Amino acid sequence: MSLILSLDTSTASCSVALHRDGLLLGCYELFTERTSAAMLTTLIGDVVKQAGYELTQLDAIAVAKGPGSYTGLRIAVSTAKGLCFALDKPLLAINTLAGMAEQVRAYFPVTYTLCPMIDARRMEVYCALYNTNGQELQSTSAQIIDEHSFSFWLSQGPVVFFGDGAAKCRALIGEQPNAIFPDVNVVPSARTIGQLAISAFAEGPLENLATFEPFYLKDFMTTQPKKLVL
After folding, report:
1. What is the signed CA dihedral for 215, 60, 189, 71, rounded to 10 degrees?
2. Residue 56: count of CB within 10 angstroms of its CB
3. Ranges for the Gcp-like domain (predicted)?
């Protein structure tokens, strides 16, 4: 028996889901330009209340750990850790790209490889490779896309590229026979973070609340202010 609350603000979208024993009880999703902590906490309260539960009844809290937006990841992880400390509940952290792959894997044959992508500015994407059983074939990385990207995997068989980073990849390798770009908008969601959290809760390990940090993948980049010339 497990009641798991899941959070995902890896990108501009904001989502919260509640699962009990693998069954989705409720999911709220917002697709806005900016995600705020206030929006997230409102959705948390709503989904738990509408499902007929109290926060104290949760068995665990899961969060999409990244990669993704620096600010978005900070919001979700900070909120999840705060709830875990306040409620004395364990924290589960799920890879954002694994959650995206979970959304589509049932729709493709076993011979296909899945490549979820998150836009990381310019010609760079965060990506990973999975088979349709959900097993990771290539670990999460930041890739600068060119016409030779994924050539090995494309030589092995069909590769499905999806997510908001796939468009820049399509312009360069979309003509290759094994490159598949479905016309669907796949965005990170707490729905599939919660699905993956069920097995993570049963198998462990749980995250250390004191030391856990989002999976940024690369350092946060800021621009230097220009010197004012009088």
Report:
1. -40
2. 10
3. 33-147
The helix or strand, by DSSP H or E, that contains position 198, with its residue range, turns out to be helix 190-203
**Gap between the Cα atoms of 78 and 72, Å rounded:** 10
SS3 186: coil
Q: Name the band, by pLDDT with cuts 50, 70 and 90, for residue 219.
A: low
Reported as a single tens digit per residue, the pLDDT across 103-135 is: 999 999 999 999 999 999 889 999 999 999 999
CATH of the domain spanning 98-180, picked from 3.90.650.10, 3.40.630.30, 3.30.420.40, 1.10.510.10: 3.30.420.40
Pair 193, 62: CB distance under 8 Å? yes
d(CA 204, CA 229): 57
Rounded to an integer, what distance in angstroms lies between the CA atom of residue 115 and that of residue 159?
7
Q: How are the residues of the chain apportioned to helix, strand and coil, as percentages rounded to the nearest 5?
A: 35, 30, 40
Class of 3-95+187-203 in CATH = alpha beta
Query: pLDDT digits over 164-218, tens only?
Result: 999 889 999 999 999 999 999 999 999 999 999 999 999 988 999 999 999 998 7
Structure tokens at 158: 């069909």
Cα separation, 201 vs 92, whole angstroms = 7
The C-alpha angle 141, 10, 35, rounded to 5 degrees, equals 150
36: number of Cβ within 10 Å: 14
Residue with the two structure tokens 């989502």: 15
Instruction: Determine the 3-state secondary structure of 82 from DSSP.
Output: helix
